[in-house]
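Final report, results section. Input specification for complex C-07:
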Amino acid sequence: MALKIVKGSIDRMFDKNLQDLVRGIRNHKEDEAKYISTCIDEIKQELKQDNIAVKANAVCKLTYLQMLGYDVSWAAFNIVEVMSSSKFTYKRIGYLAASQCFHEGTDVIMLTTNQIRKDLSSPNQYDTGVALTGLSCFVTPDLARDLANDIMTLMSHTKPYIRKKAVLIMYKVFLKYPESLRPAFPRLKEKLEDPDPGVQSAAVNVICELARRNPKNYLSLAPLFFKLMTSSTNNWVLIKIIKLFGALTPLEPRLGKKLIEPLTNLIHSTSAMSLLYECVNTVIAVLISLSSGMPNHSASIQLCVQKLRILIEDSDQNLKYLGLLAMSKILKTHPKSVQSHKDLILQCLDDKDESIRLRALDLLYGMVSKKNLMEIVKKLMLHVDKAEGTTYRDELLTKIIDICSQNNYQYITNFEWYISILVELTRLEGTRHGHLIASQMLDVAIRVKAIRGFAVAQMAMLLDNAHLLTGNTQRNGICEVLYAAAWICGEFSEHLEDPMHTLEAMLRPKVATLPGHIQAVYVQNAAKLFATVLRKQEGAPDSQAAQETSQLLIDRLPLFVQSANLEVQERASCILQLVKYIQKLQQKDVEVAEEVSALFAGELNPVAPKAQKKVPVPEGLDLDAWINDPPSESESEDEKPKAVFAKEEPKHTRPRHPEVDEKELARRREARKQEQANNPFYIKSSPSSQKVYQDAPGVEHIPVVQIDLSVPLKVPGMPMSDQYVKLEEERRQKERAEKKKKEKKKKREKRGRGKKGDSGPESEEDITPAHQVDIVTEEMPENALPSDDDDKDPNDPHKALDIDLDKPLMDSEKLPVRTHRPEVLKSPAEDGDGEPAQAEPKKRSSKEKKEKKKDKDKDRKKSKEEKKKKKHKRDAEPEEPVEEQMEEPVQSEASAEVAAPPTSTPTEASDLDFWLSNAPEVEPTPPETTSTPETTSAAAPESEPEEPKDTEPEETKSSKHKKKKQKKEKEDKEKKKKKRHHHHHHHSDGAGDESVQNGTVEEEEPLPPMSNYCLLAENSYIKMVCDIQGNLQDGSQVVVSVIFENKSDCFLKSMEFNVLDSLNSKLQRPEGAGPHDGLTVPFQLPPGVSNEARFVFSVQSIVMPQKLKGTLTFIVKSEDSSTHEKLDFKLHFTCTSYLITTPCYSDAYAKLLESGDLKASSLKLEGVNMPFHHLLARICFHHHFSVVERIDSCASMYSRSIQGHHVCLLVKTSGETVSIDAKCDEPSLLGNVLEEIKQTFSRC
Amino acid sequence: MIKAILIFNNHGKPRLIRFYQYFAEDMQQQIIRETFHLVSKRDDNVCNFLEGGSLIGGSDYKLIYRHYATLYFVFCVDSSESELGILDLIQVFVETLDKCFENVCELDLIFHMDKVHYILQEVVMGGMVLETNMNEIVAQVELQNRMEKSESTVWVFFPFFCLFVCLLQGGLSAAPARAVSAVKNMNLPEIPRNINIGDINIKVPSLSPF
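Structure output:
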């Protein structure tokens, strides 16, 4: 045996460890992959060994290999094994590996639940810490649901190290299990004021993260955060809070007003740049939210802009970048204050740092006006020429287009200039935005009618020089512009100077190398051009020309008929046949031009990209209803919307011209392009070998384009668009001069119709566009719905966290709590999987029955409610049993939050109003409050009762009755709700539900609710109920949890709990207190509220039950007086309370019974009328036993006392008789326990 | 939220990767490559912020990085983090590494990836900043290391015992080398870093049974 251990250890010594692996990899640079594969083989061998150290070492190496990109998911189970090692060293390795490679799809994760739970409750804080860290990386919805309560308990751990980790991980839990947010929130809020700065910062972190996504739910925390902001000195916390305020101010302008002053102070006082920057940012957000009406409003703006200018001028590139970033935020609302810094921003365009240039570009977008657009774009075009690297150039290109096209071309005064800019942009090498340029060309040509003549001429030129653009045929390459060019030339061919020439250009054999969709457009538009040409030629005397044209098409089109692209092929063969037919007619001297052009007659209207989506559903039409009974699943779904579209918009459906498709296509493409244009992220493209496009021929007068010149006419040293800048300058000067003359007559010159000119700066109004342009707005269907909600992402995980936190917590919302299971699995390996899935159907079937039972259970319900208020034990909790199914019915701490009214009541909202309205804080009735009864009844803001907002108004003096009734109503509602939402199945609706979760009892009846809390004492002011439990960690301690409930409508305070010690049991008092001093209850009770306190007793002998006398003294404070009151009680320590639910395997159990050290005793119960599993559940629950094995109507059970006595029961039932045979190593203890069991069953 | 933390050297070799959102291994490598590509072509005197990691996140995400000697420390964060704050955090992290490793260099990270992870776990947890106070971080790391050591003190004497057993066993030719590598494997503080002893891993036929 010993040798075996030695051998295992030696094996371990000779395994490679991580360092060896790394070294090996470094030594095998040339055949790394091979080396690693042999290493993986070794690791696989190591993982097969029993020695945990060897396994841990192997897993550690796998973590390294994972970093290098090797998939190690095959070792997931071994990782779990290492995680469950009892040694911290190995555990840490296991959790690290798990956090690196586990994810929601890892199936072994569900095996880890119990292990993690065990680690979370480990006495060693680093075990807990390591588990929390690991869990934060791979938490799944199942884990989150099962562990939420454990983690919440850890939020109040004694060690700040654990607290801060537990607080942080709650965010992940919320994301995965949104139902936990409401029950956990009050505690999270508490942590904002934790004494440890680390915990505080963690809580701020989590709440900021939550609030960022759903700010409106967190407005009520503003006063608290404000306090933190003014008191905290931790810059990290301050930054987070200030950022949070930035998210909150848009919702509450009054908050902004309150913030300005402290923020300004911070800006002036802080030396930390990061803090200063965030302050400026938030001030900007505040200023944005306050539209106007602030006296020192402009002063703040000035301060911000001035500080930002300092940042931008700083030599530190980081500050420069951030300055620009913040500046762009100001720009949105206060463009004027930024525009004065145009020089600075243009200067940044020359910066060597790309990030900064991009930021500056963003700023330029907002700085353009009609006046400076041309100038700015000219500058940008210069940058385009200079730019190295396609990413930045592409960015410039999109920015130029964005700048020009923003707000429906608001700032463009001369569209000819814009078209020439677009044409110039086509010279860009290797750009990926051919698409974008093309869509702009199409958009402008379609929507600005006046420009069509010019556009067509330019496009014809592009087509003619197509060979310069075809070098780059990759997707989105520049050749995309040919698509637009061909379409524009075809569609608006009446503007063409020389259509014949263009037609020839479009039918060149080289076209066949273009991408398919472009060829298709070529073919289609060649047909349009053909129609135009025919018309011209037929009018002319020389009719031979028309026939020659037909012949040209007949010669060239077969090339396209052979195309591999279906679309091209189909169109080409169609048109080829058409032309052949036309040729036949021509030969018979039939005039065909009219008919041919009729094929393409009609104007195309631009349609908004969202138009189809916005078509309203006509009244009475149910799109989801079947028109006929569904014959099979093959029914195509997109037919129906189409039909609607046709009905609604008859003008868009024409007789089946090929154009209809074409138009649709173009429209869809355009929509796609626009979507892409909105995406600021582009993947770099590789530079291509395309030739530079020669300078476009300059033109003095529009639209003179001399296509037939073999050498392009060139204005030396000046690209074409510059000409327009010059021209425009001249024009404006002339206009200004003219205007001066006309001013006396007060006659306004022509202005562009259809423009949203009024939104531009005032000073620009006198700049008139060069042409009378008509920007046709995109068509929308009639009655289009104005809703713009189609931008939301339905998959956003934060959507689920949009939860109203101010509503009082409902019973159903409490976190699932582990309770015992009456049945036991034999081997630990079987545990853990499939549980939730099995629990669900059970729950469903139990619900109906439950409702029927409800009336009968009234008295039970009472106890159930009490139970809900029971608090989770923190310091005195027994150590976690190994197996889940036998755990004690520990109650959620969340339940206590119901009792102790937290933060969340209607008054909270009014508190906010009050806080914001700047009134003195002593007077808690704010002017704005709505007349909710709560606010009037509540004496202090903290003392609101927990009724929901919508209670009947007569309920002022809260009575306990009413509350209970309401609770019941709530429960009813909840139950109904649950029927619909089955996923609630884990919510504790009482212990009974929970205790049948184990799948094996599925068909049996649900358990009635149970509670261990029994009445301790009661008078007209206060009611005390208590539960007594042993403390596993210390064999001589018993913990008494007492719930104090204030039944009166007065405030109870200064409560003192005192017990007369006996020889055997003593109340543990703090050091220094005398043996007869009372313990102060650490809270006060507002009316109607209950809260729980725990008291620890030390006990010497546990074999006998005993009673202790005690008193509770307290002060009753009503509005006019306060009295001292006293309540006596008797604390009954039963032997049961010394027992602790402890799991035991059947083999161990058998051994124990065989050992013969145990004394036997037995008990017979008559007339027990309940199902066997109820009986077992009761024994388990009330007497802290666990089921070892159950066979039909016979079960063996086990429990252990805090001092280590074993108690074994064999329970048999036949009819109404139950016989219990028991064995224990302490006969008197056994006798007492049996007596108590008997009492339990005689009571029911 | 921090979405990912990447440390790689001037050649793009990853030294530590920590994703707080799941990506498959090949995607992780692609992200590292892309990030390296973006970061490496930037001068040292340009700003430390980068937009355009198209693989992680989207427009909301930024790369914030620092370049120390041969290593790049890259944090991919969303807009809820303060840019300058994260830069400070990187500094804190590196200084912590420096304290824990005593003059940290790339080799420390290469050979002790696990330890770097443990340190990082005390700084950032699940994508959120856990602790920014360096002394606190170092204290926690050291306490945990001490715990680890206390668990393995027994083993310090083990190599000598092994040597003894090996000799007994008669595997005479192999024994010394194995014992040496056994000694080497112990985390003794004096282990010389940086020394290449890869060759000592002589393949030994399986141990003869006891």
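The longest strand of chain B covers residues 2-9. The two ends of chain B are 56 Å apart (CA to CA). This concludes the modelling results for the funded period.
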